[in-house]
Amino acid sequence: MSVRAIAIIGCAGAVLFLSTLPALTHAQSRPTGLSSDDRTYLERVALGSARSRLAEAVAALPLAEGLTVGAWAGRNVERDRSLRQWVRSRPAAGPLRVYSDATAEQDVRVEAGDLGEFLSSLPGLEATDAAMLKSASRRWSGLWQTGESALSQRGGPQSPAGWEDISFEGVQVSRRAAQADALRWLLERAGRLKVTNARELSEFLRADPAIDAAVASALLDQARFEFELAADQVAVVTAQISSPALVRILQQVVEEHGHRSDFRAADFREMAAVTPDTTLREQGMAVPPPRYRLTPEFRLIELDVPEWAGRTLRAEVRAVPDSPGDEAALRSAAVEEFTQRVGELPITPEVTVARLLASRPELKDDVIVFLHGARLVNVVAAAGDAPPRATAELPLQRLWQIVRRGIPAVEADPPEPPATTRPALPPRLDRRPTDTQPARSPAANPETRP
C-alpha cells in the first residue's frame, strides 16, 4: 500500500499572517481557467453533497431511547417521503467557497426549531408522537453540513454530476427503483378518484391482486416518466398520465378482470363522463444501494497529520456597535478572531501555519476563503445596548487540505505493525518436551530408595 509521508521543510522568517490582506468578495480565490460551466458543476455537486449529509444527520437525531428520526419516519411511507423532500429542499447557507485547486465547498443548515415544527406538522400523528417530538426538539441543536466537490472528479458528458462514485449498474438500479416508487404513488393518487358518487377507485384496485397488477402494468406502458439523477445521489422520477387515458385503462381492465370484483363497465363509463380532463402527476425517489459505490482498492495514508486537523475551533463573538447588519458583523468578528488562532496552529513544533504561508504565499487566498466559512450558531439578536452575539465555529479539516499542498510529500513504506503476540522461543536441547517442572534432588524425595 502506498503511504503519504509528510516531510516538513522549515520556513525561515515569520511575517504577519493575514490581517493585512483584503477579504475576497465572493468567497473564492478564482482558480485559473474555471468556466461558468465548471462553476455550475462545482456548485451543484457541493450543494447535493451537503444535502445528502444533512439527510443522514437528520435521520440520526435521537427521538427517544433507541429511536431515531429516521427510524420513526420509516414507520410510515408517506411520512418518510415528506421528510426526504423537505430536507432536499433546504437552501444553501452562505456563498459557494471555491478554491484555487478547482475544489469547492457549500454549507447547508437546519435549525432545530424549524425541523421540530415541520415534523410536528406532518399529518396522521398520534398524541404520543406530538409529545415526543416536542420534547426531543428541545434537546437538539442546529445542524450544519458541508458538501464538497472537485473538478478533477467530473466525468464525461454522459456521467451524471454527483454520481461519479456510483457504478453504472447502481445508476440503473436507482432509476428503476425510483420509477417503481413513482408508479406506486401514481396508483395511490389515482385511487382517490371517484368512480361513482359513493365509491373510490381504490376499492376496485384492492378487490383482487390481479386487478392491481393489470392497472400497474398498463400505467408502466402508457404513463410518461421523466428521469433525473440529482446531484445529492437521489434518483427522481416524475410519472404522469391524463385522466382520460387512465379511464381507458380501467375500462380495458374491467373487461378482462371484471369478474374479480363487483364493479361493472357501466361504472367506468360514468367515471369517464364526470372526471375532468386533468393530469395526474406524482414523484418517486430512490438512492443507490451501498454495494454499488465504487471504492478504491488502495488508499493513501497520511503520516504526521496534526491533531487539530480533525477539530473545530469555537469562539464567542460580538458585533461592533452600529454595524450595518447583524449577521455580516458577526461573521466579520468571527473571521478576525479565527485569523489569529489559525495562524498559531502548529504543523511541527517549529513551523506554524503562519510561517508556512510566509514561504508559500500562493496559499493565502485559499486560507482567506476558508476563514469565511465560519459558521454562526446560537445567534442572539441585539437587545437594548447589548450588541448581537453568537457562537462561531470553524472546522479545520479544509485548512489541512490547503496547507498540506505547501508541504513536500514522498512515498514511503508503511510502518511495521506492532507485534500482537510474543515470539515463540526454541525448545531447550537439554530438556524433554514433557519436562515442565525442575527435577528434585534424590535427597529431597522421601520415596527414593537406595
Detailed description of the structure:
- The termini are far apart.
- The chain has two domains: 3-165 and 295-410, no CATH class; 169-290, no CATH class.
- It has a three-stranded mixed sheet with strand order 10-1-14, with no helix packed on it.
- The chain is elongated.
- Helix 4 (112-120) packs antiparallel against helix 5 (127-139).
- The relative contact order is 0.14.
- The protein has helices spanning 36-59, 69-73, 77-88, 112-120, 127-139, 168-190, 201-206, 209-222, 243-257, 265-274, 326-343, 353-359, 364-371, 397-403; strands spanning 3-6, 62-64, 67-68, 92-98, 103-110, 143-150, 224-230, 234-242, 279-286, 301-302, 312-318, 375-380, 389-395, 409-412.
- It contains 14 helices and 14 strands.
- With 450 residues, the chain is of the alpha+beta class.
- 38% of the residues lie in helices and 18% in strands.
Shape: elongated
**How far from one another are the termini?**
69 Å
Please state the average pLDDT score: 84
Low-confidence stretches: 1-26, 441-450
The main sheet comes to:
3 strands, mixed
Which value, in Å, is the CA radius of gyration?
32 Å
Q: Helix tally?
A: 14
The proportion of residues forming helix, as a percent range, comes to: 25-40%
Instruction: Give the domain tally.
Output: 2
Q: Give, in spatial order, the strands making up the sheet with the most strands.
A: 10-1-14
**What structural class results from the helix and strand content?**
alpha+beta
Q: How are the SSEs ordered, and which strands pair?
A:
Layout: E1 3-6, H1 36-59, E2 62-64, E3 67-68, H2 69-73, H3 77-88, E4 92-98, E5 103-110, H4 112-120, H5 127-139, E6 143-150, H6 168-190, H7 201-206, H8 209-222, E7 224-230, E8 234-242, H9 243-257, H10 265-274, E9 279-286, E10 301-302, E11 312-318, H11 326-343, H12 353-359, H13 364-371, E12 375-380, E13 389-395, H14 397-403, E14 409-412
Parallel strand pairs: 1-10
Antiparallel strand pairs: 1-14, 2-3, 4-5, 5-6, 7-8, 8-9, 11-13, 12-13
Helix pairs in contact: 4-5, 8-9, 9-10
